[in-house]
Description:
single chain, alpha+beta, ph1033 like fold, 6-stranded mixed β-sheet, 4 helices
Amino acid sequence: MAYWLMKSEPDVFGIDDLERVGVEPWEGVRNYQARNMMRDAMKEGDLAFFYHSNTKVPGIVGVLRIQREGYPDDAAFDPEHTYYDPKSDPDNPRWYRVDVAFEDRFDEVIPLSWLKEQPELADCPLVRKGNRLSILPITDQQWHFIMKQARNTS
């Protein structure tokens, strides 16, 4: 099993939305590195931290599970859709998505400010300067360290 961190703005799609719907396509990723992770590396059953970005207190708010492995993001083919890409072709798709399922909500946000202070997370891509990807790999050690913090705040 692999671990990930997936970012979303809570006013666009947040942990409340995922908990309400249960399973949802993670669409609209338009970065090739993040696309490659969804297309090639994410596997059914992998776990990811749900991270709220662009909010008053950015941070990790819960856990989601990869429900369905990467498949073409058909929003890219729909001219009426926000995520339309005229260069994406159904016969040779440019963009992919995965389906994610709600797993858990943390009682408190684990704030980015706290994550940045932890020596155990110094190599975590989330806390490195200049890393703005919406999907990031998380090591086993980083996962367990953050989960321990989540359990301590519950």
